[in-house]
Amino acid sequence: MSAGILYLHGFCSSPASWKARLLADTLASRGLAGRLSCPFLSPVPDEAIGQAEAIIGGHDGPLAVAGSSLGGFYATWLAEKYGLRAVLINPAVTAPVSLEKYLGTQTNLHTRESFEFTAGHIAQLRALQAARITPSRYLLMVETGDEVLDYRQAVARYAGCRQIVLPGGDHSFTRFPEYVAQLIEFCEL
Q1: Spatial separation of the C-alpha atoms in residues 71 and 91, rounded to whole Å
Q2: 4-186: in CATH 3.40.50.1820
């Protein structure tokens, strides 16, 4: 039984994101290459959760989840449902509201594939809102310069959780290279 990390990328992103690659490279440099699962998540919320749950169900050993943006929203729901530790990077705290402006045709930033984001997907997101959180499960990482999401929503939602709030930056969490070791440590690898 070996500990692992399930990394969930954000909306219109993929396992090719720079944070996912940096986490994979850092784990590999520590001899932990096989400890990361980073699926290419479906743009359909229920399908994305199903993908994550399949990995959780099939993992032999302790597992923590880390998520960026929409992945952080998913990570919260999964952490509460399965009792997992979770690292949230500029999470989409109010995903059903913040993603409404993206209804219609969207293009994945890495694959350039298009998909339709619908009101039905928003309804699926509403059903995935964790009613409560268990503060001891979470490490929150946010930058105040996030131009996509209001970092204060995350700070308030995860009050009582371990928090790293950094000035400046942007939605990509520019200082991730400085904090990837803390993510790994919090995930108990």
Answers
A1: 7
A2: yes
pTM of the model: 0.96
Indicate the domain borders of the chain.
Answer: 4-186
Per DSSP, the residues of 121-144 read HHHHHHHT--S---GGGEEEEEET
Residues with Cβ within 8 Å of 156's Cβ and at least 6 positions away in sequence, in order, are none
Q: What is the pLDDT along the chain (189 residues), one digit of tens a residue?
A: 689 999 999 999 999 999 999 999 999 999 998 999 999 999 999 999 999 999 999 998 899 999 999 999 999 999 999 999 999 999 999 999 999 999 999 999 999 999 999 999 999 999 999 999 999 999 999 999 999 999 999 999 999 999 999 999 999 999 999 999 999 999 999
